[in-house]
Amino acid sequence: MGQTIAEKILARQNVAGTPVKAGDLIDAHVNGLMVIQWPAVRAAYKRMGFKNGPPVVWDREKTYLMLEHRQPPTDEPDARGNLEARRDAARLDLKHFYDSEMGICHQMMVDNGHVRPGELVVGNDSHTISYGALNAAATGIGNDEVAYVFAFGQLFFTVPETIKVTLRGKNKPYPFGKDVILYLAGKYGDAFAQNRALEFVGPLARDMNLTTRLTIADHAVEVGGKFGFFLADEKTLEFVRTRTDLPFQAVEPDADANYVQEIEVDCDAIGFQVAKPFRFDNVSPVGEVVGIKIDQARIGSCANGRFEDIEIAARMLKGRKVAPGVRFYIAPASMTVYRQCAEAGLVTTLLQAGVQFQNPGCAICGHQIALNEEVCITSTTRNYHGRMGGSTCSEAQIYLASPATVTAAAIAGRIIDPREVLNV
Prior knowledge:
alpha/beta, 2 domains, globular
């Protein structure tokens, strides 16, 4: 029996050096560790008896420490945590410490060539899974697990079963990854891939740009996925090779690989999708929610904060204005994306239309931009109670949608079918 992508990568990294199959429990060497929320990791070491933080690091070249969730810090505890991270990074001589650079860790990882096809990468954020768009086995882990990997470069894994998702249809001249993954969540539920790997294949998967693939892979965790893979084609290889000269070996599934489930999606038939409060799988076609008045719109996050996500907003807003009474926030996912937008003139277009352009980072997802008893349509990651401000605004109504749907609503002041203002 052939192997899936997950089985092949985990077999390659298996400490025992033996073949693996779904269900096996193995100890695996990791190729990279992405670390944020340093105070929580430091606290894990303190519980283990290391009051001064980690005494050693497994590999200074393969550990990526970032302050992005708390940069710039908004209070004294955050500033203290950042200071401790600086001191520990210097003491341990970490080669990849991202201090004052604003951005989202996941976009910074791919921007800087720290993710390569065929590798096993872990990080203490659930959306680490997004690196699967580059053919990497990537997944989120807890802070205690980070502390272990930080010291030893290994971690136990249960080799997951895999679901094969074949995507068919024509490519779109706008970002549509959110619509694809929302459709899957709406049809199969937000746990259909629980602890399983997803392989996205088929003619449309090949035609998609990396922005669309990253959106889908990022949201694989919202349907329970352990990994979310795309194949590494020439687009992937060119993207990676322009960012790193380190060697890598991409992975493809065998023709006779065993899948626990196979799904086919005609993406031409699904249209624009919207997740209604307060679940990722509470999904309907946009036509079923038209007319809902909004107070706020947002584009950004690790799911939809890339150049193409922001370009479609600028394209739709050119010559138009944000509706009176609507606050429209847009944040690029990294400084690299910010520069792309500035060089293309998108920032000026958006500012002229009434958009409030934000610094790169995670704030737009709910960390620093709060809602009260309001309605928001957003291309960010989640819409559960309190996501955008905590328990004090738990009744804020959050609708998830693609950047085109979000922009159309910002223009109209209510949710509309984006085809009303999207000239494609």
